């Protein structure tokens, strides 16, 4: 699960459960992924960070209103930073998706061009009478030198752009 999704889950968890006093813990698992839970991990190899729920004001602790306001401000700042981070992640994912799509389109276009060049090359390799148009628009048969020159050009294109196929 992407880190930004986990962060969103954390924000939702902290927001939705504001009325409860449930604690939230964050730790890294054996694979290095951040995990959130309502209990610290049983595995003692992992150190859990108690995030708590600072938006809940304790009536039994006897804390001052200033301390509660400070906790609320810290919580709001945490949420703001988390949302900013999630937005940066979203923008980066969209940039990467757009870049991947453009790259995929370039690859598809090159594959079409390679197929077209292979087809054209097949005519040069066969016993076909090949022609080209002169400056006046008349169809003129290619002489053997022109035929070989065009064939070499097509083979060079394939070798350079199409995985060396010819």
In short:
About 5% of the residues have low confidence. It contains three helices and five strands; from the N terminus they run αβββαββα.
Shape: rod-shaped
With strands numbered from the N-terminus, the spatial order across the biggest sheet is: 2-1-3
Number of helices: 3
Helix and strand run? HEEEHEEH
List the helices and strands and how they pair.
Elements: H1 3-16, E1 25-28, E2 34-37, E3 49-50, H2 65-125, E4 131-133, E5 139-141, H3 144-161
Antiparallel strand pairs: 1-2, 1-3, 4-5
Helix pairs in contact: 1-2, 2-3
What does this structure look like?
- With 166 residues, the chain is mainly α.
- Helix content is 56%, strand content 10%.
- Strand 4 (131-133) and strand 5 (139-141) form a beta hairpin.
- Helix 1 (3-16) runs antiparallel to helix 2 (65-125) and helix 2 (65-125) runs antiparallel to helix 3.
- Mean pLDDT is 80; it is low at 54-62.
Which features does this protein show?
single chain; 166 residues; mainly alpha; 3-stranded antiparallel β-sheet; two-stranded antiparallel sheet; 3 helices; rod-shaped
């Amino acid at each position: 699960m992407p880190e930004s999704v986990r962060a969103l889950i954390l924000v939702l968890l902290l927001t939705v459960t504001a009325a409860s006093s449930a604690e939230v813990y964050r730790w890294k698992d054996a694979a290095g992924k951040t995990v959130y839970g309502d209990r610290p991990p049983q595995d003692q190899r992992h150190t859990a960070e108690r995030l708590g729920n600072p938006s809940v004001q304790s009536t039994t602790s006897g804390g001052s209103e200033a301390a509660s306001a400070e906790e609320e401000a810290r919580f709001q700042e945490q949420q703001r930073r988390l949302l900013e981070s999630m937005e940066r992640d979203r923008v980066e994912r969209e940039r990467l998706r757009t870049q991947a799509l453009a790259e995929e389109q370039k690859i598809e276009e090159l594959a079409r061009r390679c197929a077209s060049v292979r087809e054209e090359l097949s005519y040069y390799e066969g016993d076909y009478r090949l022609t080209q148009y002169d400056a006046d628009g008349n169809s003129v048969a290619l002489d053997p030198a022109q035929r070989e020159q065009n064939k070499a050009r097509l083979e060079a294109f394939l070798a350079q752009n199409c995985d060396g196929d010819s």
